[in-house]
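Handout, page 2. Input:
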Amino acid sequence: NTESRKKNEPLNPDHNEVPKNDMKDIEAKFKKLEKSVNDLQKDNLQYNNKVNELLDELDDLWDVIENVERDLWQFMQYNHRENIEIVGISESIPDNQIENHVVDILKSVGVNIQHYDIAGCHRLSNRKKDAANVIVSFVCRKKVRECLAKKGKLYGINRYKNISIIENLCPKYQ
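Output:
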């Protein structure tokens, strides 16, 4: 009978006992796995710490972006303060006559204005089908204040009853 028994097979027919050599191999493999798990836990902790650092850095960068965006909008609005918009100027007025028409409108409400007071004047791009607003950029901000102060007089002038003067605000503040 002992001859038919395989090598390393336990003598006990219940097979409850594990040979010592096999047990040592299992313990060695278990220790190796345990070390691998511990190493992975350490690595995972390091990666989690790095992710948290990066998330904190990302939060800081978003704060910087928000501040830069706010400053940009303020700067854009600051650049718009030398401008007004005139709403309702007919599309039939040719582009090369817009400035003359604007000067006439502003003089009619009592604004003391000359062509040299205007740095630029043109229609704004228009997505709608109605008349595009005209932007007027002045050399001096005082003219903007004067135009805005006297804009109410337009309603008393019959030929300009459909025209109004508004502040030129950057898109965020419109």
